[in-house]
Structure formats: structure tokens, C-alpha cells
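User: My instructor asked us to take a sequence, write out its structure as C-alpha cells, and then describe one feature of it. I'm not sure where to start. Here is the sequence I was given:
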Amino acid sequence: MARRLVEITIEDRGNQLHVVIEEMPATKLESWVIRALLLVAGAGMEVPDGADLKKAGAFLADKGISALGTIDYEKARPLLDEMLGCCYRKIEKVKERCTPDTVDGYIEDVQTLFKLRMEAVKLNLGFLKAEVENQSGSREKLSTETQ
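Assistant: Let's start with the prediction itself. The C-alpha cells for your sequence are:
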């Protein structure tokens, strides 16, 4: 089974940047979610029950990178870099992984980095948010129908 991919084009100060974003493997994403939740909770932000990774992942998907804004940058940086690592610059048929060491060669605007990371968060965690919303909606509907 192949991981999900999204192709986007971002304007970066007049230059078109073509990017492929690839979903993390399940074990890597699980590790990312747990580490992000531990850091955010450790900084005092209230997070959902960590035992329910769907709700916890949905929380992170909803809050996005801003949830990491509550913690020290040096602690958040590995998580931010991992999301950036889901992104590949695409030139014709060649893909080059985006890393902090390579992006300065082709990205000029800091907003482009934020956009890439947010798109990676959406791809990796967005389905959890939708799944939790669907489950809670179906539970509410079920409870009102039985009354």
C-alpha cells in the first residue's frame, strides 16, 4: 500500500515552487504525534487524553504548527524539521527532499516554509481530525435518534 501524496505549487517571491508532500510512515507519525503532545502538554497547554491518539492527532491537526508555538523553539525544531522532510521539491521528474540545509538554496520567503509545514501537517494529521468529527457527529445523531 502506498502512502498518500499531495502535489502543490507555491509562489515564492515570484518563483513557482512545485512540491510533492508525502505522508509519513505510520510508526514515524505515531512517534511524531506522541512527542508533539508531550512537549505541548509539558508547556502547560491542555491536550486531549493522550491514550486516544485519534483525538490527540486531531487536536494537533486543528491547532497545527501553532500548538508547537507554546514550547521552546529548540525542542520544537526537530518536529518542525520532520514535517519539512515530508516535502520534496519537484523539478521535472526529479524529487529533492526539503531539509533545513537545502531549502535556503531555493526558498526565499519564510512564509513558504510555514506553508510547506502546514500542508505536511494537514496531509499527515488532517484525516484524524475528519475521522474524529465524523465519529462525534454520528454519536450525537445516534443519541438524539434514540431519545
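For the description part of your assignment, you could build on this observation: DSSP finds four helices and four strands in the chain. Try explaining in your own words what that tells you about the chain.
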